[in-house]
Structures are given as C-alpha cells and as structure tokens.
Predict the 3D structure of the following.
Amino acid sequence: MKSGLFIATAVLYAIACILYLALLMRGSDSIRRLSGTAFVMALGGHLAFLLLESPTPTDFPLGDLSQVLSLASFGIGVVFLVASYRFDVSVLGAFGVPVALMLFLASGLGSNYAPVSAPVQSAVLMLHIAANVLGLVAFALAFGAGVAYILQERLLRRRQLSGVFQRLPSLDVLDTIGLRSVLTGFPLLTFGMVTGTFWILRGDTDGFYVSQALGLLAWAIFAVGIVLRITAGWQGRKAAVGTIVGFICTLLVLFGYVVRAAGGSA
Amino acid sequence: MRDFLVVGLSHRTAPVEIRERLAVPPEQLEGELRSLVSGGGFEEALLVSTCNRVELYATSENPGEAMQHARETLSARLPEDGRDDVLYSERGVAVVRHAFRVASSLDSLVVGEPQILGQVKEAYDAARGAGTAGTLLGRCFSQAFSTAKRVRNETGIAEGTVSVSSIACELAKKIFGHLEGRRTLLLGAGEMGEAAARSLRKTGTQLHVTNRSEERAQELAASCGGRAVPYERLTTELADADVVVASTASPKFILTPELMRGVARSRRHRPLFIIDIAVPRDVDPRVGTMDNVFVYDVDDLQQVAEENLAVRAREAAEAERIIEEEVDSFLAWRRSLELAPTIVALRKRFGTVAEAELARALSRLDSVSPEDRAVLEGMARSLVNKLLHQPMTQLKAGAVEPDGAYLIDAVRRLFELENEAPTSSRPTPEPDKEPSVKHLTAATAGPTGKPK
C-alpha cells in the first residue's frame, strides 16, 4: 500500500514535471490546466503518503531523514503551487517541481535510513530540522525564480523574444519573488544554524564538518546577498546567481546527511 | 430562395475619408438596422461598422435585387466619383466565408488583431436587439464567433506584436512587470521616438521629455502629455528613468559607456531599458553589455516585428484551413435544413400516388369486404414504405457528405419536388456564374473583399 502510493506519487510528480516543461516550451491553456491538475494530484498523493508515514497523528513526521526529505519536498510543492497562483507564474513549476521530485525520490531511497541520530526527542533538534526544512522550501522558490531570471535575461539580451521568453514572467516579478523568498528563508536558516551549533556544542554529535561548513557557506552567501540587496540595491542577474549557489549549498548540506545516513562518510 | 449577401467597404478598398462617411456610431446601429429592414428587400440584416470596415450582411428571398438595393443605399452616402470602386459585394457561401474571416481577424489591416471580434459581437448584439438577425444570420455569426475562437486557440495568429511602438511596450513590461508609475525619458525629437513614447505613456508611465532645443522639448511634452526637462539635467534624468527612448539627430553616440557608468552608480543597479530609435544610433553598443541595462535599437525592434509578422503569415494559412472546415460545417447545417422538407415532400408524393391508385382499384372491384379492403390498404402503404426505404436511407446518409447538395438536388428534380416544399432555402451561386449546387462545394480560398 505504502510503496504503491509512493510510486503513484512519484509518477504524478514526474508527469507534472514533464507537463510544466512542456508548458514552458510550448505553452497552451490545456497544458497549463493539465500540469496544474497533475501537480495537485501529486501533492494529494504525497499528503496521503505523509499521513500514512506519520507514527501518530500528533507527531510531526520528522522522525528520520526520509521523512525530513519527504516533508521538504512536500513543502516545496505547496510553495510553488501557492506562488504560481499568487504571482500568476505557473511556468515556474518547470524549475520547482523537479526539485520536489528529486527530494521525494531521495526520501524513498532513504526509506532504509536509520533515524537521524538519537530519536528526535529533543525540542531543539526538532526545531532545528523544522527551521531548516522551511528555509530550504523558501530557498527552493528563490532558486526557481533565480533560474528563470537568468534564462529570461539571457533571452532578452540575445533578442530571442518568441516562445519561452513570452511565457516566462517579467524580470521584475522574478526578482521580487527571489528577494521575498530569500528574506523569508534567511531567518529560518539563521535559526537552523544557531540551533545546529547548539546541538554540536552539547557534544551529542560526532564530527560532521563538511555539512557544517557548507551550511555556513550557504548562510554567508545569503547574508552577503541580502546585505548587498539592501544597502547597494543589488538586483538582477548577480543576485539570482547568488541565490542559486546558496540554494545548492543548502541542498548539499542535506545531501551530506543523506550520504552519512546511508553509511558513507560526510 | 433565401440567400446571404454582403455589401461593404474596408481598408482594402477605401481610404479613411470614405470609410468614415459610412461609419455608423454604435448607439445608432439598431435604428439603422430597423430602417434598413423596414425599407424592404431584406429578411435579415446586420451592420458591422468599425474604423476599418463598414459592411451590411443580409439575407433575402430575392438576393439579386436585395444586393442592388443595398449597394444603392450605401453608395448614396458616398461622394459621387468612384463610389462603385470602393464597394464590394458577395453572395451565397462567399458571404459566410467572409464573415468567418472577418471575425477571425484574417481580413484585418493587422492580421490577428484582437479588437475585431468584439466589434463584430457588438454588431451581432445590435442586430439581435433590433430583431433583424434571424435563423440564418444568427447561425452564421454565432459560428463565426466559435470559428474565431478556434483560430485564436489553434493557431498562433494573435501571438506577438507587430508594431515597433507596441514591441517596445511589450519589452518594457517583460522587464518591469507593470509600467504604472515608472518613468520614461524621451531624448530627442524623432518621429518614431515620439510614437514609442506615446505608447509608453498610454501604459501609465510618467513621461519626461528632453531635447537640446528647450522649445522643441516643450512642444513635444505638450503634445504627448509629458513634462519637459532641461537638457543639462540629462545625467540626473537618466538616473531616475526606467525606460529611455533615444531618438536624437546627433551624429555621435550620446549615451556613452563613460556617461552610463556614472549613471549606473547612482541608479543602484535598478534595471534600465534603452530603446535607441535614432539613426545614426545614440547609444554606444558597449552600453548594452552593462549589468541591468538592456539596449534595443531600431533594427532589433524591426526584426522582432518582422519575425512576428512572418509567424502570423504562416499561421494565417492554418487559419484559412480552419475557416474552410467551418464553412463546410455551416453548409452541412444548411443542407440538413433542406433535407427535412425534401423527405416530407417525397413521402407525400409517393403517398398521394398510392392513395389515388388504391382508390381507382377499389372502385373497379365490387363487393370488397372490409377485411379485404384493409389488406389492400396495408399493401399500398407497405409498398410505399418498402420502395422508399432504400432511397431515404441513402438520402439521409448522403446529405451530410460534402456533395450532399447534388443528391438532394437530384432527388428534387427527379420527383419534381420543387413546388411541394416552397420553404426550401438554398445558397445560390455568385450571380450568373455556376449552377447552385456546384457552388455549395466550391471552396476556393482567397481574400474576399476585393472590389468587384
């Protein structure tokens, strides 16, 4: 039952992915509707899967890494869905849904993962994970907007103004989405960093330096980006590149956990 | 025989001075239609009046005379000389095709422009309001609207803008999202620059105008609804603007990388869209490589316009195919209208013969018992039914085929049904050209609206 639901959800995500890419490349009202439907169905399947996974209804499904990945993937899906209606930018799904699919698949691969470290009993660890997952979700949206921005700017400079250029939103909208998502994600990431450091200082975890360094790097990139945006009015392509690099770093942190949980050394 | 006709003029046949003489303001449409129909000659009437065309669509039992009448009515409002050259007219299926092409914006000055559909819908509503749109015009135009929708959805005919000014606006929107509250700086006094600035002004941007000659700047600002600013403040104006339209007559670059680097610093990375419409150019190409600065020159814009036009031309061919499909389906509907009376008439004809023969036979037989009489009557009925069964089936099946009209026509002629179904209404050919049935299948595409 569970594996069937997992496969069905993954297939729906994959279909939504393909449809969103088709929407970006070809664009038509019917593809728009179809992609939206497939995506909502995928999210529905995912929600059912999360509820099935959850040990008890009151427990937050953050017990092991697999659940963390699954929840992050679900969060990214929801955020893209909301953003696509809020800003009327459903084509952004072409950049966000693949990320959600990737994390969802990773969560499935990790169904054999051992629990994160000690079972998540500590409130601090719980908050740490929750903040980081939410931060990741926000950065995923910023990442999608950033990729779209760079693509859009490139098309504008190369004077390729038909097709994809017509379907992507304006540079201003993409930049705004990027900025707002980073501003939302950054406090969460900061909180995640602080609680993570607290965890390490308590000495409950062994050396885990690469992930920590990457986390710090991501934090620094976002911090510098935000400072430059606010003080120097930074925007546009460079800001988008910063956001993308920052997001990849946060993703790598998570990837480090996956590798470690799967038995490799981080 | 009720048939369609259209008489009118458009941008293809008449200059604006003539078109405006025929134009009917929307609030007078209904009155105009009522007086046209009450004047006699037309069963139904619909008047399309836009700045690019004035056309009277009508149906009449006597289309030849009605067309003459319509031509006279319209040309009475035109100046004496050359009034016949500007009016075109069509009859029969060509009218249906023309209506479909007009509503789908294939006959428009700018092919694919979206306004025409709304204007035709208004014309249709007015005709409904005046009670001058009946079954035929009603069906023709509601199918014209669905055709236009199909053309829009299934082809890329309405994609992309095709004028330099509107392309500039589209690009600005793709950079800035919405344009309300943004600022446009018009630099110089070139004609095309002025047109672009006007279009931008219409989208809600504030307009500042600057020029080496203060006086010229004042004039331009007044005519475009902008504000004149002194040329000495160019650097600050550049720093504050979002869109710059450059169209000076200067032989040298005015916006140089040195100047723009200083401007960029005070702009704090805000995007700047520069439209360089001047020839020779006003903007050094190196400016276009700066971060958050986007420069488009007149060739770029022209190229976009041409690409979009080429796309539309390609798509128009596909649109014509859709039009033909829809015209065929309209004709099938008309044939189905004729099929019913034909079947009724055929049954009636056979029934009458059978009854007459039965009566004659019975009168020659004496002492027929009621039972025998019933048997004979039953035989006559079933004879008629059996004889008619095969032809009826074939007729019903064949009538919806593209050449179904031949079949119906053949049946009508074989059994001389013409008088028995006076309600028949077939589209007739263009006058004195071909027999009517051939005309039904004639599907030669081609621009209608040429003067005849």
